[in-house]
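Run: sequence + magnesium ion -> complex structure.
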Amino acid sequence: MEQFILQTLFSRERIAERVRLLAGEISKDFQGGSLLLVGVLKGAFVFVADLIRHLSIPVEVDFIRLASYGDTMESQELRITKDLELPVRGRDVLVVEDIVDTGKTLRYLQDTLKRKGARTVSTCVLVDKRQRRQVEVAIDYVGFVVQEGFIVGYGLDYAESYRHLPDLCVVDRKGASEEFPRRSSGPREKGVGDDRPM
Ligand code: IMP
Ligand code: MG
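>> structure
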């Protein structure tokens, strides 16, 4: 059986503090209006649950789910497997996503929501993972920035495991591969775990 080592990258306390600040910023930016918050399943469900409880503006919540098909990164095609149930037309929409990697999912979602007639489309992501970005996407609210590594916990999974962990952790897979670089107990690689400069 494969063995994994998890290292805490962002503790539950840091996450709680960051989520509270993000909700404050969002509430301020949309003061006097209301939001249609679109959570991206499954990874964002914990983030959405915490974020909405700190918002001080009226908000409606809906969820969308996407799946990618195709074997290689290049041939990958995205499809909606669970669509929104609330109307989007004319609404200020806030997409809430767990993590941005290549950027393809977020770009697809932003384009889809604009096509559906959203008045504005803003984006809030818990983790902005920079190194493998292929598509430039606008992100309005960012929890944490990392350069690389596979992140789990607080809703994020590896093969459906670890979503229940209260902290954000980085997965360390024994028998290192490119996708899961082995981390020693030495200092963290540059960039990993940096907060977004504010
Ligand atoms: P993108 O389209 O490449 O930006 O992929 C984004 C999606 O891939 C996210 O919504 C996650 O579901 C998944 N993903 C990418 N990196 C990670 C990670 O480090 N941990 C967990 N899921 C990830
Ligand atoms: Mg996701």
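>> summary
Residues 180-198 have pLDDT under 50 and may be disordered. The beta strands are 4-10, 35-41, 59-69, 77-82, 92-100, 120-129, 141-146, 150-152, 168-173.
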